[in-house]
Design goal:
- The complex is a heterodimer.
- Chain A is an all-alpha fold.
- Chain A has one domain.
- Chain A contains 9 helices and no strands.
- The longest helix of chain A has 39 residues, at 83-121.
- The radius of gyration of chain A is 21 Å and the shape is elongated.
- By secondary structure, chain B is an alpha/beta fold.
- Chain B has a domain at 41-141.
- The longest helix of chain B is centred in the C-terminal third of the chain and has 47 residues, at 140-186.
- Chains A and B meet through helix 2, helix 6, helix 7 and helix 8 of A and helix 1 of B.
Amino acid sequence: MFKELWESFTDALEGLGSVVHFLFRLLVHSPPALLRFSLISQQIFNSGAFSLVIIMLSGLFVGMVLGLQGFQLLQRFGSEEALGTAATIGLVKELGPVVTALLFAGRAGTALASELGLMRATDQISAMEMMAVDPIQRVVVPRFLGGVISMPLLAAIFSVIGIYGAQLVGVQIMGVDSGSFWSQMRAAVGLSDITEGIVKSIVFGIACSLIAVYQGYYATPTAEGVGRATTRTVVTSAVVILFLDYLITAAFL
Amino acid sequence: MRKSRTLNLGTGSFVLLGFAALFFLTTQTTSRGLSWFGPPHYEVTAKFDNIGDLKVGAPVSMSGVEIGRVVKIDFDSNEYKAVVQLRLNERYDKIPVDSDASIYTQGLLGGKFIGLTAGGADTYLKNNDHIDFTQSAFVLENLIGQVLANFTKSKADDQQNAAAPADAKSSGDSKPNADTKSKEKTK
């Protein structure tokens, strides 16, 4: 029994090591890949622009819920005017990056993993190697960089739509003064809050994209293997995002 | 070629939207914001001894109706007073020059706002006019300090007053009182 435990522990360690190794390979290949920007731009379109609708809709509803809940809570203390501050801080620092990253892992991460897994299963990756085209540089790195670039932009869009959602409920429906909503927000939200949100979304973007391309690239070349790679992408991404969120929050305190 | 054009267009508009959102977050939600353009307006100033935590963008109201906003807060180092610039909507152009401006609090712990009370003059406020009659913000700490000071003072007074006569009274009067009361009860 101890032997099995030890083996699963070393397996996990080996997996972590190979992810880190894979990340370094991607980083080494990134500068030359930046020169062929059309490939990256195509991937930004695939993982960023296609995620836009789900991000905007979720942002709107998350913001509206924040507006409603925040109003109910703040009303007890007679300070509904702080609604703008509460909603903005919550969105920019936490909900924006985290919810966007979770949705991104579900929408774009699974697409990346299954695409690469299917390429592996149908021997397209081996064919590239045969033709002396480096699949990492031609296929994997553009997808990785596309995800890394898209994620902060998506998180920012999510936060802005969310703030307007909170404003819609708080000001238009619940009747908080619009001037107080914005002026208290401006007075209380600092540039460091925005920076924290941006740093988080960049880190989550790197983590999500890395996990997706890693799972896809090393998927078992069968239908079942591709399915498992897709599932693992979502599960691992979700856990890693929440863990990193705690770390970054603690580091910014 | 056609396909790559639409693709680039999509990517471009997505990236533009993303950066617009980042720009909005850094300029509109923080204090480094750019002031927005409102309806036609005119501006007046008022000097206060103490504005508490009044903020730029706070509403200016009259009879509870919002008629403008605070656009600038400055400090006059000659008079040691806060200079508040108010931007009032041009629809409300019949505010007497002798109106007075006070700083109020929204709710118990809410933000501050400026309330105007109309005066009786026949001339009205114009652009760059000055409101002479002002009343400072109500600062909770000062009020608590005053209450505490009054409380301790009155307590000390009571003790001084009570010292000599109260003793005589209590020893002389209280016993008969108690007796009469007990008598009444037995009756």
